[in-house]
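Recap slide: Cytochrome c-type biogenesis protein, sequence and predicted structure.
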Amino acid sequence: MALLLCSAWAAAVIETYEFSSPALEARYHALSQELRCPKCQNQNIADSNAPISQDLRRQLYQQLEAGASDEEILEYMVARYGEFVRYRPQMAGPTLILWAAPVLLLLVGVAIAVVVLRTRRGAGEQLSEAERKQLAELLERESDA
């Protein structure tokens, strides 16, 4: 058990950057939580040990120290790695379909259910008088049997 704990500790991401201000360090931590590792896919760059995440963290640090805003940094990362690099993609363009798809599918499902229920309910009303008598006779025979 002790070996497992030691190996988990050894695998942790350890990088030390000297920031010129505590505000930059706070922005670094917030942005590194916001950006997804392109290789790991379900980890942010702060938690990933992949070489690409190390490069992204280094770029993030350099851009912050160079005076780039959060928006500029995110735009750069998206331009280079695609919208996938963000954990919370913007609601624009192709991602708008992903944001709207659940609502649209729910509305389509409700519309289909309404149409099916109305056609089933109206099916009995479309029988002629002769057909109704025949149906009643058939049902009576079935109940007698």
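The chain has two domains: 14-85, 94-144.
Helices lie at 2-10, 22-34, 51-66, 70-81, 94-123, 129-144.
(End of recap.)
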